[in-house]
Amino acid sequence: MRKIIYLFAITLFTISAPLLAQDKQDEIIAVWDADETKVEIYKVDGRYIGNPINSEGVRNTEIEVLNLKYKNGKWVGKIYSKKRGRLLDVECQVKGDKLLLEVTARFISTDLEWPKVK
Length: 118
Fold this sequence. Notes:
By secondary structure, this protein is of the alpha+beta class. It has a single domain (28-115), classed as Beta Barrel (Lipocalin), CATH 2.40.128.520. It has one helix at residues 2-25; strands at 30-34, 37-44, 47-53, 66-71, 74-81, 86-95, 98-105, 108-115. An 8-stranded antiparallel beta sheet has the order 1-2-3-4-5-6-7-8, with no helix packed on it. A hairpin with a 2-residue loop joins β6 and β7. The longest helix has 24 residues, at 2-25. It is globular and about 65 Å long. The relative contact order is 0.14.
């Protein structure tokens, strides 16, 4: 009987672990306040895409601000820099209601913090 309970517990853990990891990956899906604009992040084919939201609250799919993939507990990819007019490397983490971004341009990096829009 003990072996059956043990095997059941292992099976349950094995099945539920990917589901819990999926929830962690998807916690970035939200609308974030990026100072000058709001950015909506959503998932398409395993990638996390961020588009600006216009003044009417509609996502502008013609402009892609973020293109991320979830790897090793964080989101990595590219962010569009309006100031530089090009794509830069970015790593993101969600901490509570804040999206922490580390943007790297060659050897210089800067940290940004975007609060979640409620």
